Automatic annotation (TrEMBL), chain A:
Species: Streptomyces oryzae
Cell compartments where the protein resides: Cell membrane
Gene3D superfamilies on file: MetI-like
Name recorded for this polypeptide: Amino acid ABC transporter permease
Transmembrane segments: 35-57, 89-109, 121-142, 148-170, 191-214, 247-273
Coarse class of the protein's main subcellular location: membrane
InterPro entries: AA_ABC_transptr_permease_3TM, ArtM/GltK/GlnP/TcyL/YhdX-like, MetI-like, MetI-like_sf
UniProtKB/TrEMBL annotation, chain B:
Transmembrane segments: 23-42, 181-205
Name of the protein described by the UniProt record: Amino acid ABC transporter permease
Source organism of this protein record: Streptomyces oryzae
Keywords attached to this entry: Amino-acid transport, Cell membrane, Membrane, Transmembrane, Transmembrane helix, Transport
NCBIfam families linked to this entry: HEQRo_perm_3TM
Domain ABC transmembrane type-1: 15-203
Principal localisation: membrane
UniProt keyword Zinc, yes or no: no
Membrane topology: Multi-pass membrane protein
Cellular compartments annotated: Cell membrane
Amino acid sequence: MSLTALSPKRAPRTGQDAPSALYDIPGPRARARHLVYGIVAALALLALVAWVIHLLVDTGQFAYVKWRPFGYVGVQELLLRGLGNTLKAFALAAVLALALGAVLATGRLSEHRPVRWVSTLLVEFFRAMPVLVMIFFVFVALEVQPLPALVTGLTLYNGSVLAEVFRSGVVSVDRGQREAAYALGMRKTQVMTYVLVPQAVRAMLPTIISQLVVALKDTSLGFLITYEEFLHAGRLIAINMDYTMPFIPVVIVISAVYIGLCMLLSWFANWVARRERGNLKNEAVPVGRAEAAPTMPGTRM
Amino acid sequence: MDVLTQNFSLYGEGFWGTVKLTVYSSLLALGVGVVMAGFRVAPVRALRVVGTAWVTVLRNTPLTLLFFAMLLGLPRFGVALPFELFAVLALGCYTSAFICEAVRSGINTVPVGQGEAARSLGMTFGQTLGAVVLPQAFRSVIAPIGSTLIALTKNSAIAGSFSVVELLSTYKTLSENGYSVIWSFVWIAVGYLILTLTISALFHAMERRWGVAR
């Protein structure tokens, strides 16, 4: 028996994932068995896909008339305008949420107790509220246009979550950094702006970008308050009698674009996380994960 | 205060709708999520691919789009189910992707020696995962799962816009009956706070009872 069979940790990587501690490196018989499982699973999956495609074909979803509208300039413009509105809401919400997050995080890290209390209250409240309730409240009770209502709701929620991300980043910077900065005679603000914040933001960048993915996904809530965003444009096409109500093609196109956009941003967050982990500048602070994780109320991050 | 006392049954109905949505979707999400987490660490490659695809697609889909596609799309194939069931399916599947990731990172926190010891006793993959690793992983995933279920409760508000009776949608009836919009929203907010804080307290208690001492 060779050494590699005994210690799977040192087993050569065979182009797959790193060896797992949960199962042995498969021998010839296990490999044959896994192959059978794999084929069965793949066949089941293929059968499912085939059934879905059969359903789609059966109900005529791939018929030319259902897809023809996407060739019309007017429809393309409608979709692009919708996508533009989605991206506009996202950009506004992202910038404002980052600003609000910075303000609230500063408040929570303040040395003045009232400021800390107020910021904590705001952060905890906006994180505990469904973002849709805030959007509807602004839209219905304050009677503003859909775009400001959507952006306000998204800003309040994501800003509060980002505040916690910023704060936990600053708190997790190695204590020696702060002490060294004070020892050099820096003032409180200088310690913050020159020493703690740059390291915290750099380390938290993956988490911040992941939270922006959440904001991007949540722009689709604008659909529910009649903001003319991407989904809204899709619905207009889907319910149009002249286009034979191509609902399924519309869903396919819209999902592809949304999932593509979000995956691109998620992938960027992961790329940043990998890069920052290998960066010597992050020695004093653990790099955040590329995952948007709002914690439970009352939990220290 | 009048808004609440005069419409107590309406609020109660909405609150109960949100509770039902939350409980059923949570059960679905937990079931599917744990199975998918098992798939993602399985020795069979095809299963790993299925798990990864499930998580990647659902995590990057806006929930509104999922509701839109499910509630308005599935009936085109003759799948006629009550709106509540569609909503539970959409919420449950969406949340299962996040549960899966929480469980998977919980599995990663279990020391490698545990899995190795289980294997050296001759346990199969299923036994190693089910009897040794998952019970220990459970202790470290209580808090993340709590946060995910709170997010689920908050997301259930979307169902109200798709003809499901739940807490947020009560505002429509109230404003039609001429009640103050601000006060009706205050009580809706209180309802959600009660729910999220209850779940939070529940999971904090579980964390104290079973969580890993940190």
